[in-house]
Specification:
single chain, 398 residues, mainly alpha, Helicase, Ruva Protein, domain 3, 3 domains, 5-stranded antiparallel β-sheet, two-stranded antiparallel ribbon, 19 helices, 48% helix, globular, MltB-like, MltB_2, PGBDSf, Lytic murein transglycosylase, signal
Length: 398
């Protein structure tokens, strides 16, 4: 069974923001599909791709309305960190992760040696994205990218991916009739977009092709190469569960408020297992469900998770999954204060928006903007400013 949330359901791989559609691209989207595909072919040929490859790639291309429905309906999963992490980090997934790390030990050795990315980190993404290749998506990749390129909502993101997919057809790494993947065009066991596959793909099994669907070694090394590109710092930690004192100044917690480890130690923050990282290393103290739930120090490498996927809950779960695969014990769930229902969260967001905060779309999602606003209002009201919205906070703001 595919993970209930993946990079494709939240944000596109490697895309940190959605730019406004340029006039040139807007003029090339929509309209007659045949004319649109002819324009795509001309662009592909202008980039050195053969007309024959473009014709083969686009011969039977069609609009997939299921892709459009998925694109319109996408949204961050609304479970809490405890709910989501417990659901996606099952014992079965843990067992399969360990077995795969053993089965492909030599490949992971190479990934760590050449790219500096730990096997547990790669394996966690591999497991969450596709259950280690078991469920990779059943959308025709060419049709998905044609659909999203033709649609005028975000052609600036998808047209380059379509051109890259045509180049993959020319290289023999994509079959336009048979290659399937996620609704947004990601392919393979670690779900990567064609542009990234072309740039970071590694032929790990030596067959002359980069085939992320069928080859686990290719997927492992390509994933490692991409993670290194995102800025992974070899030999450094990414996430560590900690024990925090009850009297901590909670307004100092949260992403974007990193302090040297020595300062956290001076404030009474302790490692749950082992010891904290180097005193000079910066870390942010994150509390996914407030001061009464699990607490983690997020080191610089944690930022790579946020580039893979912008959802705080997904990235924290993925980073935590990697620590578990690396030998850490199960987190201390604590006893978090009750959170808000979907309707209550939307009400809170409207109130915060009315106060001038940028919480983005009123969608019931506890995103970065809402968390930051909650923390500021908690501090103003003299409440523990741990960025976890509760019914008590909502009541005081109403």
């Amino acid at each position: 069974m595919k993970s209930p949330i993946t990079r494709t359901a939240i944000s596109l791989l490697g895309v940190l923001s959605v730019a406004m559609t340029s006039p040139a691209l807007a003029a090339e989207c929509g309209g007659n599909l045949g004319q649109f595909l002819n324009g795509v072919k001309q662009e592909a040929v202008s980039q050195g791709i053969s007309a024959r490859a473009a014709d083969r790639a686009l011969a039977n291309a069609a609009i997939d309305n299921k892709v459009l429905r998925r694109d319109r309906a996408q949204g961050v999963f609304k479970l809490t960190f405890l709910e989501f992490s417990k659901r996606v980090i099952s014992q079965n997934r843990m067992d399969h992760g360990r077995k795969n790390m053993s089965k492909y030990a030599a490949v992971f050795d190479r990934a760590e040696r050449e790219y500096g990315v730990p096997r547990a980190v790669i394996t966690a993404f591999w497991g969450l994205e596709t259950d280690f290749g078991a469920v990779q998506g059943d959308f025709n990749t060419i049709n998905a990218l044609v659909t999203l390129s033709h649609d005028c909502r975000r052609p600036e993101l998808f047209r380059p991916e379509l051109i890259a997919a045509i180049r993959m057809v020319e290289n023999g790494d994509l079959d336009p009739a048979r290659t399937t993947g996620a609704w947004a065009g990601e392919i393979g066991q670690v779900q990567m977009l064609p542009v990234d596959i072309l740039e970071f793909g590694v032929d790990a099994d030596g067959d002359g092709h980069v085939r992320l669907k069928a080859s686990a070694p290719d997927a492992i090394l390509t994933g490692a190469n991409f993670i290194r590109h995102l800025g992974w710092q070899s030999g450094q930690p990414w996430l560590q569960e900690v024990i925090v004192p009850s009297g901590l100044a909670w307004q100092n917690t949260g992403l974007g408020k990193a302090l040297p480890v020595r300062e956290w130690s001076a404030k009474g923050v302790q490692a749950k297992e082992g010891s904290l990282a180097s005193n000079d290393l910066a870390a942010a103290l994150i509390l996914p469900q407030g001061r009464k739930g699990p607490a983690f120090l997020a080191y610089p490498n944690f930022s790579i998770y946020l580039e893979w996927n912008k959802s705080f809950i997904y990235t924290t779960s993925a980073a935590y999954f990697a620590t578990r695969l690396g030998g850490a014990s199960r987190y201390n769930a604590g006893n978090p204060d009750p959170g808000l229902s979907d309707a209550q969260m939307k009400t809170l967001q409207r109130i915060l928006q009315g106060k001038g905060y940028d919480v983005g779309k009123i969608d019931g999602i506890l995103g970065a903007g809402t968390r930051a606003a909650v923390q500021k209002e908690q501090l103003r009201l003299g409440m523990p400013a741990d960025a976890w919205p509760t019914p008590q906070l909502l009541s005081r703001l109403q």
